């Protein structure tokens, strides 16, 4: 579903110096798979996501979504940002239906799906409320519902829970798994949390310090469906240790 081939990205720094953010990044993600990317701050994780989303061009290499080369934003992709980015003048239901409005589709074709997603996210009774009436975690749940309303082939998540406290973050991880279970979307999550990456994913990609390169690809063989109890198992501990060891090997652990 996602194919990244020899991707690289350069930026112009101060004084005209060249800043190489990413180099030689290649991987593929199958249909319905959940993949996380971990790495040090500044290694190009968000840059990678933005190139996959088609919001910035690559300097080198190509990205394919469902066999089609990415040359700009695509209707096949849903994106959830670090903050919810909900419109304050629209109700929660109206915010979730925004993709239908942008597509100029009939709202009636999406309302049932939007309400079902809100119900799974525990937001059914808040559908007619406004974003300012909800907590940060509830707003982020609404943002995920919005991205999933039209069943995107690919869901891209850019550290969506980074600003939440530990307990709320664990709750959001469970909500995310439940919501993604309603679709066949392939999911790529950017995160700084090793435990979050292992808990949610089928595979964990590890990136080096800048220029970011893919230096590890760890398969997570934990059974699904998963509950928070899996975090107390020996296998979970072994997998998180394996990710941490790879990060340490590439001198990335101190900033993760």
Give the arrangement of secondary structure elements.
Blueprint: E1 2-12, E2 18-29, E3 34-38, H1 45-53, E4 60-65, E5 68-69, E6 77-80, H2 92-96, H3 98-102, H4 108-120, H5 136-148, E7 154-158, H6 166-180, E8 186-190, H7 194-200, E9 203-207, E10 214-219, H8 234-249
Parallel strand pairs: 3-8, 3-9, 6-7, 7-8
Antiparallel strand pairs: 1-2, 1-4, 4-5, 9-10
Helix pairs in contact: 5-6, 7-8
Describe it.
There is one protein chain. This protein has 256 residues and is an alpha/beta fold. 32% of the residues lie in helices and 24% in strands. A six-stranded mixed sheet has the order 6-7-8-3-9-10, sandwiched between helices. It has a four-stranded antiparallel sheet with strand order 2-1-4-5, covered by helices on one side. Helix 5 packs parallel to helix 6 and helix 7 crosses helix 8. The C terminus is likely disordered.
Helix fraction bin: 25-40%
How would you write the strand order of the largest sheet? 6-7-8-3-9-10
Radius of gyration equals 18 Å
Q: Could you name the CATH topology of the domain at 1-76 and 154-165 and 185-256? A: Rossmann fold
CATH homologous superfamily label of the domain at 1-76 and 154-165 and 185-256:
P-loop containing nucleotide triphosphate hydrolases
Structural class: alpha/beta
For the record, the CATH architecture of the domain at 1-76 and 154-165 and 185-256 stands as 3-Layer(aba) Sandwich
| SS element count, helices | 8
Percent in strands? 15-25%
Find the count of extended strands (DSSP E, 2+ residues): 10
Which CATH class of the domain at 1-76 and 154-165 and 185-256 applies here?
Answer: Alpha Beta
H and E string:
EEEHEEEHHHHEHEHEEH
The description of the largest β-sheet is: 6 strands, mixed
Shape: globular
Low-confidence stretches: 252-256
> How far is the N terminus from the C terminus?
28 Å
Mean pLDDT: 91
């Amino acid at each position: 579903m996602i194919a990244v081939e020899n991707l690289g990205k350069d930026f112009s720094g101060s004084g005209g110096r060249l800043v190489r953010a990413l180099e030689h990044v290649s991987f593929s993600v199958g249909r319905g798979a959940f993949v996380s990317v971990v790495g040090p701050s500044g290694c190009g994780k968000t840059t990678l996501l933005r190139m996959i989303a088609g919001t910035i061009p690559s300097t080198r290499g190509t990205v394919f979504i469902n066999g089609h080369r990415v040359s700009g934003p695509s209707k096949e992709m849903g994106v959830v940002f670090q903050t919810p980015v909900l419109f304050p003048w629209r109700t929660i239901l109206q915010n979730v239906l925004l993709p239908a409005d942008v597509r100029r589709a009939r709202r009636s074709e999406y309302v049932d799906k939007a309400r079902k997603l809100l119900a799974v996210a525990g937001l059914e009774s808040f559908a007619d409320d406004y974003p300012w009436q909800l907590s940060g975690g509830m707003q982020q749940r609404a943002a995920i519902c919005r991205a999933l309303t039209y069943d995107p082939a690919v869901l891209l998540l850019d550290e969506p829970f980074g600003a939440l406290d530990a307990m709320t973050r664990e709750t959001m991880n469970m909500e995310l798994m439940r919501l993604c279970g309603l679709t066949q979307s392939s999911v790529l999550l950017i995160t700084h949390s090793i435990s979050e990456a292992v808990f949610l994913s089928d595979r964990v990609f590890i990136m080096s310090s800048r220029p970011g390169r893919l230096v590890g690809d760890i398969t997570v063989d934990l059974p699904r469906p998963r509950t928070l109890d899996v975090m107390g198992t020996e296998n979970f501990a072994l997998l998180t240790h394996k990710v941490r060891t790879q990060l340490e090997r590439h001198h990335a652990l101190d900033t993760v």
